């Protein structure tokens, strides 16, 4: 990436069918619930109209059982459940939107680098070079149990494994040189064997012979995304990633995060411009501030009273149902830290939340305040995005977090906010490249 006033725009589609959005006005209207691809194809078309760079699917392989010690609340209310494999949607969405990129999550903790390298090579071919890999290390106990682990792997061990995992994947993508394919019908030569190489990797976690039995894909390798906020997570991002997602909640914490990443990049011999950050933000388009507040009020009234605590429990592997009346959010810090999970994002909550706020109070607001928020008229939203983009170094852009309804939210952004950003020269009016990587530069 290069420093630019132009923002890159993406949208997080991870759980559009869950998190209480499925029952709100405007959600899934005219579509069979989760049974067909048409819903996601239409979202892709909307993103294409807004010249958005990417649509993103986060994923885990577990059913939350942290709140109350069972899966009852997540299943009853649809809190990050169900979790279908969204990879089969990508080829259909890619045909519907011929310029939009797509990001899929794959864990380095429970998969194998040979499979993942081959998987993303295939998707990069199918999408004509518009695929990205969200590299995660899986911080959920029930996901570990589904893959046969009685205990979740230690945090630092997960990242050491991830470092070697991505290294092997890169070796596999490089094992067949770009000019290997010949396809000469007269001589009968399909490919040049001298340009196909074994990798013979023998490491701490993986032994992989190679080569990758596939022709190089349009991007050669997928765009690499990493969202870890811990020290090892930042190291992994600085060494390998092209993009980072971040859930910082204030401009000062955005600036601190950008500065920390830049230092890491320089330590690994990379330029800070090499890695852009997409800041996660919730957008609520409204006719006025009062209208935005009314939409938020209706949303909060539509969700179960304990919804935020159910979400917090699933996110941090801690049973927030055990919170005593009046207990402060900070009282759970040690419990979250001891779970070897997502402490980095929890620490951000502690730093940017009123310390006198109780767990119950914060749980009620968590669904709407967990990430940056820009609500109101298109002009007001554009003002805030412009301010944050400039203040954080103009290197990246924004990824829309989940709004209130599962189709209207992104449509309102594209139809009302994007034109205002384009008018200011802050969003592109046309795609400049054929691949996702080209469009991100």
Structure description:
The protein is of the alpha/beta class and 441 residues long. It has one domain (8-174, 211-299, 373-439): Luciferase-like domain (TIM Barrel). Helix content is 40%, strand content 14%. The protein is built from 16 helices and 13 strands. It has helices at 38-49, 72-77, 89-96, 113-126, 141-146, 155-173, 231-240, 251-267, 289-302, 307-316, 333-338, 343-351, 359-369, 378-391, 408-423, 436-439; strands at 8-12, 54-57, 101-107, 131-136, 181-184, 189-191, 201-202, 207-208, 223-226, 243-246, 276-285, 372-376, 396-400. Strands 1-2-3-4-9-10-11-13 form an 8-stranded parallel beta barrel, surrounded by 5 helices. It has a two-stranded antiparallel sheet with strand order 5-6. Strand 9 (223-226), helix 7 and strand 10 form a beta-alpha-beta unit. The longest helix is centred in the middle third of the chain and has 19 residues, at 155-173. The termini are close together.
